[in-house]
Target: Carbamoyl-phosphate synthase large chain
Amino acid sequence: MNVKPMNLLFTSSGRRGYLLDYFRSALDGRGEIHAANSDQRASSFLHADKSVVTPLIYDENYIPFLLEYSVANRIKAIIPLFDIDLPILASAKTRFAEVGTTIVVSSPAVAMICNDKLKTDSFLRSNGFNTPASFTSLADTLDALARNLIEFPLVVKPRWGMGSIGVNMAENEGELIVFYEKVRREVQRSYLKYESNVDLEHSVLIQQVLKGHEYGLDVVNDLDGNYVTTFVKKKLAMRAGETDAAITIDSDQLKSLGKKLAGALGHIGNLDVDIFVADDNVSILELNNRFGGGYPFSHLAGADIPQAILAWIRGEQPAPEWLHVRHGVTGTKDLVIRCLSD
Amino acid sequence: MNVKPMNLLFTSSGRRGYLLDYFRSALDGRGEIHAANSDQRASSFLHADKSVVTPLIYDENYIPFLLEYSVANRIKAIIPLFDIDLPILASAKTRFAEVGTTIVVSSPAVAMICNDKLKTDSFLRSNGFNTPASFTSLADTLDALARNLIEFPLVVKPRWGMGSIGVNMAENEGELIVFYEKVRREVQRSYLKYESNVDLEHSVLIQQVLKGHEYGLDVVNDLDGNYVTTFVKKKLAMRAGETDAAITIDSDQLKSLGKKLAGALGHIGNLDVDIFVADDNVSILELNNRFGGGYPFSHLAGADIPQAILAWIRGEQPAPEWLHVRHGVTGTKDLVIRCLSD
Model:
């Protein structure tokens, strides 16, 4: 088989060095791994053949910089790994296509549904999924509390947010009011302000806390947005807002949910989904349209979505075994110290 | 050289697998690495020759369990890696000595000075070190604010606490009051309640937020509490409450501070020290008498305190090169996925 070499660029590569390793294996020597990040100390740089420090995502030079870099380095595909990168790259998809670079990213509309937790809420509701009651107004929240439609504890967090940044648990009205004001101020001081400026008066989300156990899904569509597969994992430990340990499980119920979600959203590539299950009640909490901190637990159990993505880019079909996981595989993230400069 | 084999047991080994690797290298094949943790999914178990799930630290069977395990496995030395483990093991030191097991831990008094942030405060002040103004009473805090002795922002956190658990930043009086009550409730619901029960009415610490850049020290004493050396690192990134990236630096000022601190405290082994430097103003924030999340950055730069500890246990002198770091070495923690069961 004569496979053409293919250079890949990972943007906002951050701490996801393991993902670059997966793609390196998938390339099997036929292409280079490039990593881009605005911080020169990203540990993923240690896993790349070449790495580049970029302007900040919201800098006007960000897209021109990546375009120039892609041309100069014959980048065949860009794989963004950070939420706020997605809408920016989604909007620039055709400009990159013109220079021969495929961005593995959904439409701007899909990126917005995932990044804006209020849009996530209405998307899920209108498609018949359970999701926790959500508010962006303090008055509406207090009203719903008074009418016993919701109850404490409530989560107060940035409407456009990610990970555990600014996530607070309010157990009473005093905390609710204080956290609401605090999150609003914090959003304005952080890079979350860029997306939040769309609707500053509704930049804080107040949400019913879900009971039950947390699960994570990888819901995979191909590059045309057609459903391919779903992997289900039970989360066993969290750290710094991401899955730190998990076990792959067999669940027809959650696989069906993944398939239904994929059909409704029509995203491209991997959709990382956070789910709470209490008794038979399944609620969806968050959608993130990128490889998340939970994907490596699927990969550990035999999945190989990086190989599948490379096949789709080449116009080929992935091998069936890349699209399945063994059930009952438990994994954990381990810390390793690496030298950046000596 | 005929060195006797030596089995080592690491308690509360948690995520510190890299530390077990350092000691494995130091043993150089002459002894076993044992890891103990109350959670069977501790990633450090993957770095041990043998691992054992223990009762919880505050369980009455914890010490009897470890004693029995130490005898059965001919454990020569125990190295605890978790703050709340330290006072419990410090109190049991002679019982272990009777069965031939050395615990690398300070006296109960030193353990208390480090774990109780109010004791840390008075220890530092009475020995002439700068440390942020600290209060355990809301009334005293409001009074100090009114008299302009302190100003917002203030940190509100558990007096007996660790890492980033329950650490809140209050920017005004409303937040201060809400966080004070919240931390008090959280302490009572977590395992922090055991130490906090000593003085429940003063279980929350309110502290002036320090300005400046954060540094970390490893202040090393030998097993008799005599000062040996200090390593200085500038912290470059934090994650989940611990140092995620750092660079070793040369600072006579901070080394002198380490030496003075070691003399005043008389601890045993490694003392992990958090420091803020603003202009020429140096303040000490926390003392943790164990290998901390910052030690690997010293090790990366050439230090080898594990080797030194083994030498001291054998009654030998460490090689001088184990007690020095190269300056300007930058390290980062990287995430690696490992399989716990398949």
